Amino acid sequence: MKIIEFFELSIGRWRSQRSGHHLAFAHFEEVLSTIDIESLSHDDPAVQEICKLYDADLSSITHPFRMTWEGESDWDDKPISGSTVLVPIPDSENHSTGKLLREKGYAEIIPAVGKYHLSDDGIFTLVTEYDLAAAEERIWFANPNLRFRVSLIKTSNGKGVTTASFSSEIRSLSSSTS
Description:
Layout: H1 3-10, E1 12-22, E2 27-39, H2 45-53, E3 65-73, E4 80-90, E5 97-102, E6 112-118, E7 124-129, E8 133-143, E9 146-155, E10 161-171
Antiparallel strand pairs: 1-2, 1-10, 2-3, 3-4, 4-5, 5-6, 6-7, 7-8, 8-9, 9-10
């Protein structure tokens, strides 16, 4: 699988079930959510703003997208929701490695730059270092409508794990009625 295929396969609405282990609190959490991933154009104002923020050349980016989520956690009574814009910048000829610019990070709610790698067997790995932590995510497709995600939040020195989670995500297929 090529990185372009990976990003294109990710576009759509996903129903996600995540199991998380918060090791610092000795707590297990279950989260059910809907994730919408939509493709954005290079001339989208949010994409241009992120490129400006990181001094990135618009001609160097590929397949920018917005991810929006809404969900419920058994740990918190408040609904979980958010949105972020992500801009991939490949740094290899075959686009299998590069940077992923984020409007908001995963482990800390600040702008963040992650490094991605797509392995030969189609596993997308993203490592993002923050001020106080580091996040590592791995995403892969079992088929075009089923994907899996494993996430770790590590201490800033990378030696301790504070959170580990596993998600299964199923694409919402719209049925057209005429």
